[in-house]
What does this fold into?
Amino acid sequence: HAQAFARLIGEQGRLIAFDADEENLRFAREHLREVPAKVELFHTNFREGFLKSLPPIDILFADLGLSSPHIDDPSRGFSFRHDGPLDLRFDRSQGEDAAQWIARAPVEEIADALWKYGEIRSSRRVAAVIKEKLPRTTGDLCQCIEAVLGFHARSLFPQVFQAIRIAINDELGALEVLLTKGPEVLSPCGRMGIVSFHSLEDRMVKQKFRALSSSPKDPLTGAPVRPATFELLTKRPLVPSPQECESNPRSRSAKFRAIRRKILV
It folds into this structure.
């Protein structure tokens, strides 16, 4: 994505990129060496990035969640398909890893995360076993889930890993900051687009973008008070084509939504 945007804006353009994962930034630096645009990369979550003094932005793009290197590297602990340390942090330079969070968090906090972020119906039972066993590896965590759910456990591995990952990285909290601060820094006609990969993220993006593109109404009469500040560019989310899903199966759940700031006279 960064390469495509850098080529789009050309040598007069400025690309400012944030990533919480230092390894992703190293990969980006390598692949952005030859692009014409001026490139600035920051090792930080975009939540902290918006605290910096930024110029008005013409295009704001966010690609949420995991990347393929996260899933393919067993040492990161993101995948239940590989045994490795139970880490799950995007930024390994700070914060608790998943094993430390499990050891510290009350069982109620773990259960709430499993329910809210993974929609696990047996969240209390699963959380109790996780808290009792204190898993240190991804394989340990899978065994905890199997101890409660038996035959059905494997189908729920993705939701459990997702829930713990969202909790320790505060992903939805960071997204809320992005949805609040992002529109504020757009230039006139500036566009903001977000690619999400699960229903919790997509629901937040959809609701915020619809609210921004709706005219505020008088609470008594229901009449519009003023025109909407933003235009919704995607009445329905853009999703991968069948051809893309076939060539890149991990794109199957992706949804893209976008808005544009209007020029109000």
Remarks:
- The chain has a mean pLDDT of 93.
- The longest helix spans residues 153-169.
- The two ends are 34 Å apart (CA to CA).
- The domain at 78-170 is CATH 1.10.150.170 (DNA polymerase; domain 1).
